[in-house]
Design goal:
Strand content of chain B: 15-25%
Distance between the termini of chain B: 66 Å
Number of helices of chain A: 23
Radius of gyration of chain A: 26 Å
Shape of chain A: globular
Protein name (chain A): Cryptochrome-1
Number of helices of chain B: 15
Organism (chain A): Astatotilapia calliptera
Strand order of the largest sheet of chain B: 1-2-3-4-5-6-7-8-9-10-11-13
Number of strands of chain A: 5
Structural class of chain B: alpha/beta
InterPro entries (chain A): Crypto/Photolyase_FAD-like_sf, Crypto/Photolyase_N_sf, Cryptochr/Photolyase_FAD-bd, Cryptochrome/DNA_photolyase_1, DNA_photolyase_N, Rossmann-like_a/b/a_fold
Largest sheet of chain B: 12 strands, parallel
Order of helices and strands of chain B: HHHHEHEHEHEHEHEHEHEEHEHEEHEEH
Structural class of chain A: mainly alpha
Strand content of chain A: 5-15%
CATH class of one domain in chain B: Alpha Beta
Helix content of chain B: 25-40%
Order of helices and strands of chain A: EHEHEHEHEHHHHHHHHHHHHHHHHHHH
Helix content of chain A: 40-55%
Number of strands of chain B: 14
Cofactor (chain A): (6R)-5,10-methylene-5,6,7,8-tetrahydrofolate; FAD
Family (chain A): Belongs to the DNA photolyase class-1 family.
Oligomer: heterodimer
Largest interface: A-B, 87 and 107 residues
Shape of chain B: globular
Amino acid sequence: MVVNTIHWFRKGLRLHDNPSLKDSIQGSDTLRCIYILDPWFAGSSNVGINRWRFLLHCLEDLDASLRKLNSRLFVIRGQPTDVFPRLFKEWQINRLSYEYDSEPFGKERDAAIQKLANEAGVEVTVRISHTLYNLDKIIELNGNQPPLTYKRFQAVINRMDAVEMPAETITSEVLKNCVTPISEDHDEKFGVPSLEELGFETEGLTTAVWPGGETEALMRLERHLERKAWVANFERPRMNANSLLASPTGLSPYLRFGCLSCRLFYFKLTDLYRKVKKNHTPPLSLYGQLLWREFFYTTATNNPCFDKMDGNPICVQIPWDRNPEALAKWAEGRTGFPWIDAIMTQLRQEGWIHHLARHGVACFLTRGDLWISWEEGMKVFEELLLDADWSVNAGSWMWLSCSSFFQQFFHCYCPVGFGRRTDPNGDYIRRYLPILRGFPAKYIYDPWNAPDEVQKAAKCIIGVHYPKPMVNHAEASRINIERMKQIYQQLSCYRGLGMDASLLATVPANSNFGGNGTNPRAVCTVTNEGAGGSSKDPSVQVGMSQTERAQSVQKRRHEETPLESSSKSWKQSK
Amino acid sequence: MKRGLQGNEQEDGGGTSGGCQKTLKRSRKQRREKDLEDEEVRWECLPQEILLHVFQYLPLLDRAFASQVCRGWNEAFHMPELWRCFEFELNQPASSYLKATHPDLIKQIIKRHSDHLQYVSFKVDSSRESAEAACDILSQLVNCSLKTLGLISTARPSFMEMPKSHFISALTVVFVNSKSLSSLKIDDTPVDDPSLKVLVANNSDTLKLLKMSSCPHVSPAGILCVADQCHGLRELALNYHLLSDELLIALSSEKHVHLEHLRIDVVSENPGQQFHTIKKSSWDAMKRHSPKFNLVMYFYLYEDEFGPFFRDEIPVTHLYFGRSVSKDVLGRVGLNCPRLVELVVCANGLRPLDEELIRIAQRCTQLSAIGLGECEVSCSAFVEFVKMCGDRLTQLSIMEEVLVPDHRYGLDDIHWEVSKHLGRVWFPDMMPTW
């Protein structure tokens, strides 16, 4: 019997460490690697030009690599549920493989395809290679709940079995006798489209700061490791002005698209560490970047409402302000705060910003200054940020807006001070906001405070050539911290008389945040002793019904109860 | 309505739901059969007290559905006990994601329950309409005798954007009619001195809690009037510009109860603002009168505006610095705040706070909570700090970036050292890096 195989690329755009592809090649007679250009990209049409360009680079790179193996990439337009039945028939397919997608939308889509495959008698091969671990196992090990604090997550990771080794790269040896039938008109029918063909205006588009593709990814990996070896201590590099700029060793977009295997990165880091530090066990912090990614994937995998506030059981219901005008100013870099505007400009132009820059702008939009919903910020990042995939983007926004994950909300990134401390000279501002080039370092972060002569000399009058600041930061942060405190006080079922002195103790260590889809609005709050009278001041119970309180007690998760061997993690260093 | 049989109900004298008190005389066999038959229909005969108790567990919407079941349950729904507390949520779709209290419900409450209301709050979004709607409702609560009133802006302070006179007249309605107000939360509102006088004239015996941070139309004289007359005042929150020596003396007078909680917001409108000083003797008087009171201070100042502060001993217990604060000021905090319980620093700048923290550990012997945001501390100094405080530190919230590795400790082993001294597992606060 002839075995005809389709490998379906979604993420995992690589030939190294691609176990589902490798396994399905075994015993195949023909192989066709496809990429389906779903007009609805991963559930949302909100994708900017940089993201599309990066993807097309990745596809071209795959195609080039496959050509070296006498194969090609087949780019097919349409929806998977329409495309597959057609292909199964046309190409007489009996095998389908793809990399496991842990995101709820992905799982749903794949379940539908599995069904179609079963109906057509097609064998499906799925392997995990986008994450270090099998996420379901992590959840199982944590009592069937995803860990909701990073520390807890690390403790569970410590107990997992070792990460699986990357699979062998696909080479002509691996392919053996497996061939790809390529037609004369392959380029017309299945070629990688250009940006213009997709409808983008490319005139004036600068060269990509982040070129996509597996080849580029592997090169960067080598450079990244070289640099790490140079900094032989493996210390966290101190944040400085340079860190803000795109680095030739940056890997996050490549991990997101799967041009670089996270497992390959993991093992290379481990090997390098062992070599330099003479066989010491690497600490978990070495894999920080990878583990954060893993953490958000794990939290999101069983929660289809993960990217929303409403109906999301792990999200605090915060009364964000609806303000499209303010949102637009933030998204377009017109807030009047050079630090914020420069960051948003870099993001729009290049598709990547440093993680502390992300913290700064996210804080400004949400709990710091504008009090706008994190969902709005998430959508803007989705459009512009190369490494923002669904789980990581939504999770990070919830984290940065203090909507989940139980962290303190007192630290606020000042849109003036934070930038000034990171890059005192202001070169970053001048680079991305050339209109402010003439300002001296003293005023470049708060140009509205510059005397008229300075503004005139800089040829930039604030309010004319560059906007005035859209909020008074001190006032905004005063109001907002009070709002956050109000909300968290209610969550922790605070029952004291009137005011709570402590700011730090208001964040509960373990409970369920409202929103089971039945957010009771206009709830009538009644004291426990409504009928019998009580000396307790019920004024502070306003806002939380008996039911909500009862529910939050029942669903209290014992986040902080120690796992059996969590002590392992702190005995390690002895 | 079917009449079910339930032995205990006959004794119940409290129930007022229609017609279930009659005892039906039947043969035992008939009764048993009827029992089984009526198994499903006993619900409407639940006495009112039990219904009330059950209803209290239901959110309003479910209670409203239940009230549609029968007349008895409808009556129970309207029992005064269920309408003592209410939180009006006033949101506009254009400015909020959350739903508002239904206007029909509001009408019903005003019509049927306004004299039952005792503990009321208004949550408004950032639109002016919501604030005005709140005041409209307030103006209609003429028959109310409120014990608690809270005006809460959940986003931007919209009470400040409505006409002041409208606000004042609505608030005055409550002050005049309630006469037994115990708790009042009116932060970020245009309340003024005359309206405070009205409050005092009617509620001086009962007022226990007054929260009025950021009320720009109130003067020090206005708040002094409250302190002079309301001797039961236990909790007060206001801005620094309202604080005076006279106020503290008034709060420490013999006639006054012990103050439990004083919260002061120190906010700078423009860079270079000058702040007055409070005499040490005034704070001493407060301490003598109310030895256990919490003094909570929130600072939102530019670094060079701290001149008047922390020069003398001050009995502050909870301190929050919402902007960057200098090493120098933190050094003075260590020297002059012996009662300090919680210290939270949003940002300091990139010079290590080693000495300052050690001094705080030494001299602030009550310190049990500390939070550091954008600061720097060397790992050794931090370990020393924790060692000196020991397990009295119940809240230790340090951002990971704060800790600077040195020759003795790296980032990977510091949490172990700190955990040892705290007696529990501890990690610094982290932010995602990706």
